[in-house]
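Summary of Year 1 activities. Much of the first year was spent building the evaluation harness for sequence design. The harness presents a backbone, in tokenized form, and records the residue chosen at every position. We chose the following record to illustrate the format because it has been used consistently in internal testing since the harness was completed.
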């Protein structure tokens, strides 16, 4: 079973520290030594606020993964306990964004001026464009310390949901339903 990170909206204060930590964790270079205008701020989660509540929205790494099924180039695949994006395969078609029931996938540009693979176009007709690729939570798979959002949240709003958590939740709901009969 895939596990995922979820935030308690009653604990979230909407500070967006999780978004900053996500960008820092996924930066190729030390972000603190870069010129701010050169930083692409592309977090893999999004804090959504309304009048009553705020909460981060991020990938649930679905078992059935509708985003992966919608991708015509198999750029989204299951690796370990999560669904990940292969940027080399992604063509930026947005099918995964439409298929995600949580709105947890964004489209971001990659390195400026990177040529995309256009096999049928003569070389002299090519021009540089920013390649757009899917961007979603990867559970900070390159970090031994786990998801960065969990480490920095000042209210400890985040938690990892495991198979055991789901099993316990189901048991409790069944007990509650039995009492109501």
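For this record, the design step produced the sequence shown next.
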């Amino acid at each position: 079973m895939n596990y995922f990170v979820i935030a308690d909206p009653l604990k979230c204060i909407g500070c967006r520290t999780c978004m900053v930590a996500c960008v820092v964790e996924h930066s190729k270079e030390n972000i603190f030594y870069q010129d701010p205008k050169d930083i692409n701020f592309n977090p893999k989660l999004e804090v959504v606020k309304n009048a009553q509540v705020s909460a981060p929205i991020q990938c649930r790494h679905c078992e059935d993964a509708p985003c992966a099924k919608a991708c015509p180039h198999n750029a989204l695949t299951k690796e370990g306990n999560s669904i990940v994006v292969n940027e080399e395969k992604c063509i930026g078609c947005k099918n995964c964004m439409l298929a995600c029931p949580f709105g947890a996938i964004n489209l971001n540009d990659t390195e400026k001026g990177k040529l995309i693979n256009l096999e049928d176009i003569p070389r002299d007709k090519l021009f540089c464009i920013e390649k757009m690729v899917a961007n979603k939570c990867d559970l900070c798979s390159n970090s031994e310390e786990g998801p960065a959002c969990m480490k920095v949240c000042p209210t400890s709003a985040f938690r990892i949901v495991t198979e055991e958590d789901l099993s316990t939740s189901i048991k409790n709901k069944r007990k509650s339903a039995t009492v109501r009969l």
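Residues 163-180 form the longest helix (18 residues). Quantitative recovery figures across the full test set are reported in Table 2.
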